[in-house]
Amino acid sequence: MDNINILGIESSCDDTSAAIIQNGIMLSNVIASQSVHTFYGGVVPELASRAHQQHIIPVVHQALKNAGIDKSNLSAIGYTRGPGLLGSLLVGSSFAKGLSQSLSVPLIDVNHLQAHVLAHFISEGNPDEKHPPFPFLCLLVSGGNSQIILVRRYDDMQIIGQTIDDAAGEAFDKCAKVMGLPYPGGPHVDKLAKAGNPTTFTFSKPQTSGYDYSFSGLKTSFLYLVRDEMKKNDRFIIDNLHHLCASLQHTVIEILMAKLRKASDDFAIKHIAVAGGVSANSALRRAFHEHREKHDWQTYIPPISFTTDNAAMIAMTAYLKYRHNRFGALTDTPFVRVNNTF
Description:
Layout: E1 5-10, E2 16-22, E3 25-32, H1 45-67, E4 76-82, H2 86-103, E5 107-111, H3 112-118, E6 136-141, E7 146-153, E8 156-162, H4 168-178, H5 185-193, H6 216-232, H7 236-267, E9 271-275, H8 282-294, E10 298-300, H9 311-323
Parallel strand pairs: 1-4, 4-5, 6-9, 9-10
Antiparallel strand pairs: 1-2, 2-3, 6-7, 7-8
Helix pairs in contact: 1-2, 3-9, 4-5, 4-6, 4-7, 5-7, 6-7
């Protein structure tokens, strides 16, 4: 049987990535990040789309080279259709459509959030790899999304809970900015929190219905505490930086895990996965290990390299869709917003 070679292209935000999956096994995964946004404290959409235009050809070329695959041997091209920044998505989708036409191979559109969940099925060819069985629950946490997803099959996912305002990653970044930390703030908070006491400060835990999240109240209470304490001591942030980070991180993770426990109990599902950029957070990973022991969960935590936006997860999703003849069309347009089902 001929090899199934899938090229995946990811361009939903500020990372340009290309990857090759062959028969379900990852051969390459190349990512070009954009440092320009650090100076602005967040992603600037216009700058992001321009950088994608510069990066996409060399990134795809390098992914093919690393995999030892010629473009003429590609079986299909998968690309991120959304959600994401419209300008960034247009760069990736336009390139994918043009390449699929020139090679006369199928085009496969991929939902970015579905791909984050299916990153758990990326294989690097190791015999001890562990993939979650269906059904399972997945906590998807990133700068733009905080969701609990019920995964029945690779093509049957339902968002049963999500943030009604800020995402967890956004809360980390905004609170980090208040403390004068660089963007993105999440990794800096995680690093500094290791030397702090997580019970030093108490922040608001907004009450929401069902499995939905809210982080705006937490962010506001953090801001007010810092503002009030700075009036008393202008060195408050400097003197308490580690404790502020530890307390903030502790509160965010408590909010995330409380709703996840509720969903696990209500749906009687013990197979629990985590995905998205915030799943790289060391305290969140530790919380998953603790819940595995305390609540008899079977937990699935992705390698750090698959937590952020990457094309391997796009290629993996496209591979699964290819095997079921689920192809896209040239008339498919990118979408920006999140749907409740995939």
